[in-house]
Amino acid sequence: MIRTAISAVLLASATPVLAEIHEIAPGEGAQEALQEALILVEPGDEIVLAAGRYTITDGLSLDVDDVTLRGAGMDGTVLDFTTQQGAGEGLLVTSDNVTLRDFAVENPKGDGIKSKGADNIVYHRIRVTWTRGPHPENGAYAVYPVESTGVLIDGVKVTGASDAGIYVGQSNRITVRNSIAEANVAGIEIENSRNALVEHNIATRNTGGILVFDLPNLPVMGGGNVIVRNNLVVANDTPNFAPPGNIVAGVRRGTGIMVMANEDVLIEGNMLSGNPTAPVMVIAYVQPFEDERYNPLARNIVVGANAFDGGGYDPQLDGAEMLLAAFGGALPPIMWDGLGSLYVAGETPGWTLNLTEAGVGLGAARPGPLAAPAPEGEFDDSGIGAPAELDDRLG
């Protein structure tokens, strides 16, 4: 009898604890119930938000690993931060292996959803919107993973961010796909990050559609190994509404895809239409800096075969009238400052500022037709993109 009892205890202790589902419904007390669930949830648990609108007056946070936060769809479950107190983000995640899916965040005072140091995070069918449209007092970032290894952003929609709609910074192994970035300053931005794949997205009505940046004086430096492929980048013509002093406040209205001070970037298979300053822009960082680790030039940037239609017709550039006259009424689709190294496949036309050093300003430019060499061999795409196992969470 004693031996049987001991065996039963051992068997019970060896059985994994079943994951718990925490169900939250809108209405009175919903905010408190949700934040309590985010605090008390255990690894492996799932928090399920029923359809409806949730009035949230304070920021939410999650710091437990292996948790799923799930709603009833980006138009079915809405976390409404219109009356939020303070200026923090709507939701902050600081734990690993988290899945956020099928809900919306509206009108946060700060960023929409920020994840920091959260490895292997998935954003799936999330919507973040500032409903008043473009405005400098909107939050800076809609979807904002930073300092992470393993980021999958799939099926997201972001609107109205005063900096970037989808921003991934200081991270590694990233995929941004099947998403819509509309009416932000920067639609999609990859900054100081490596091994990023940006594909099958729509970037429209932003100031700039897709930006790949590297900036000085950040904890993680040396961005590169980025593929921007098979995206629709169209009609990015919203005037820049970033607050003064933001780095993206200098992005010219009408920029399609922009690479600045990055290395090993491939741009191919994209359709670019109606971007009035430059469908593709490749430039150096021009501000003063003291970071000895930093290289301000764009290096080994490859522009492959893309489809261009109707860009460069109203450039937000000094001397625009003379430039348009010189190039027959519209600028060629590729603009390069002449610094670093650029390769162009095929016969896509472009123009260059022919600068000899960074930071000297457009007054030193000697504009002329672009004569860039063809790429040297195949682009190495090994290790680029989010870890494949993150796809398993999308079912």
Task: Characterise the protein shown here.
This protein is mainly beta. It has a domain at 130-380. Helix content is 8%, strand content 37%. It contains 3 helices and 32 strands. It has a 20-stranded parallel β-sheet that branches. It is elongated, with a radius of gyration of 23 Å. The two termini are 46 Å apart. Mean pLDDT is 93; it is low at 1-16.
**Rg, Å, rounded:** 23 Å
Mean pLDDT equals 93
* Quaternary structure type: single chain
The major beta sheet can be summarized as: 20 strands, parallel
Number of helix segments? 3
**How far is the N terminus from the C terminus?**
46 Å
- What is the SS-derived class? mainly beta
SS strand fraction? 35-45%
